[in-house]
């Protein structure tokens, strides 16, 4: 019998959370992941739903997400344990018809609740739906080690951080031509940081929280994981380069322009024009 555990979206969440744990991005209960679904995705598994779904009000109504289902990681849950007990560590939720709250349809057993960063995720989903015409479905937050390290060393500016990551690995400009948004340090788990992140998500698929971690957005779990992985690999190269005394040579502005032309992407202008 086909159960929701075997669905593509539960299995996808298991793989993404397990891979992130193995990367060292999600210690303890660090990190959270949400995937926007369609009613058709969850319809075959109604027999697995809770008989009386719990209802939780949102601190800030989001009518633009009304009626949409999501699969989410739980608050206080460890990514390393998702593969061991998906039902306890994941949940399928559905926003109600006016966007004021959501019902927990499946998972999050023993009165568990979704990630404390759900407001930030939902606000970012709202903006990425607009920015990508509905293509982006995933928001992933993790503590990517080298990206965090760079926020202590580089000036936390979108143009500078983006340019350095582009220079750290040739593929970066192609993978995230829109650059990396950066917030000031803020208390996590609040509406304020959720609103600030969503504002940056209007322009960037990657947003850094200095001294904390990164938010990434994409159309699939693989694409979103790959986006963060690419930026993190570049950050790892940069950490090594700075540890060896700094750059003696790098990818030039002209070469970055040539990359953009070859792959048909438009690089973030402020990063491209930062210096020659």
From TrEMBL:
Name its pathway. Carbohydrate degradation; L-rhamnose degradation; glycerone phosphate from L-rhamnose: step 3/3
Which Gene Ontology CC terms are recorded? cytosol
According to the UniProt entry, its GO molecular function terms are:
metal ion binding; rhamnulose-1-phosphate aldolase activity
Q: Which residues form the Class II aldolase/adducin N-terminal domain?
A: 11-239
Extract the CDD domains matched here: Aldolase_II
Q: What class of enzyme is it?
A: lyase
- Tell me which cofactor or cofactors this protein depends on: Zn(2+)
Q: How is the cofactor bound?
A: Binds 1 zinc ion per subunit.
Chief place where the protein resides: cytoplasm
The alphabetical list of record keywords is: Cytoplasm, Lyase, Metal-binding, Rhamnose metabolism, Zinc
Residues annotated as catalytic = 117
Checking Gene3D superfamilies in the record gives: Class II aldolase/adducin N-terminal domain
Assigned EC number: 4.1.2.19
Instruction: Please give the catalytic activity noted in the UniProt record.
Output: L-rhamnulose 1-phosphate = (S)-lactaldehyde + dihydroxyacetone phosphate
Which BP terms from GO are recorded?
Answer: pentose catabolic process; rhamnose catabolic process
- Locate the residues binding Zn(2+): 141, 143, 212
Q: What is known about what this protein does?
A: Catalyzes the reversible cleavage of L-rhamnulose-1-phosphate to dihydroxyacetone phosphate (DHAP) and L-lactaldehyde.
Tell me which family the UniProt entry assigns to this protein: Belongs to the aldolase class II family. RhaD subfamily.
**What protein is this chain from?**
Rhamnulose-1-phosphate aldolase
Protein's organism: Trabulsiella odontotermitis
Q: Output the lineage of the source organism.
A: Bacteria, Pseudomonadati, Pseudomonadota, Gammaproteobacteria, Enterobacterales
């Amino acid at each position: 019998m086909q159960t929701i555990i075997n669905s593509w979206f539960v299995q996808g969440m298991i793989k993404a959370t397990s891979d992130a744990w193995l990367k060292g991005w999600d210690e303890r209960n660090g990190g959270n992941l949400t995937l926007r679904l369609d009613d058709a995705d969850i319809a075959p598994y109604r027999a697995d739903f809770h008989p009386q779904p719990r209802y939780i009000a949102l601190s800030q109504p989001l009518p633009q997400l009304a009626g949409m289902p999501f699969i989410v990681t739980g608050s206080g849950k460890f990514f390393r344990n998702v593969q061991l007990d998906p039902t306890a560590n994941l949940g399928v939720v559905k926003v109600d018809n006016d966007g004021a709250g959501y019902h927990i349809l499946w998972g999050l057993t023993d009165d568990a609740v979704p990630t404390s960063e759900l407001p930030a995720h939902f606000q970012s989903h709202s903006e990425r739906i607009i920015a990508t015409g509905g293509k982006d479905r995933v928001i992933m937050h993790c503590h990517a080690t080298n990206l965090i390290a760079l926020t202590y060393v580089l000036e936390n500016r979108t143009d500078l951080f983006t340019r350095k990551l582009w220079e750290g690995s040739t593929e970066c400009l192609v993978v995230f031509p829109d650059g990396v948004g950066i917030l000031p340090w803020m208390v996590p788990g609040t509406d304020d940081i959720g609103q600030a992140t969503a504002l940056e998500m209007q322009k960037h698929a990657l947003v850094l929280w200095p001294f904390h971690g990164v938010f990434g957005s994409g159309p699939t779990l693989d694409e979103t994981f790959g986006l963060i992985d690419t930026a993190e690999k570049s950050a790892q190269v940069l950490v090594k380069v700075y540890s060896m005394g700094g750059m003696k040579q790098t990818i030039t502005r002209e070469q970055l322009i040539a990359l953009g032309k070859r792959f048909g992407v438009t690089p973030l202008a402020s990063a491209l024009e930062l210096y020659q």
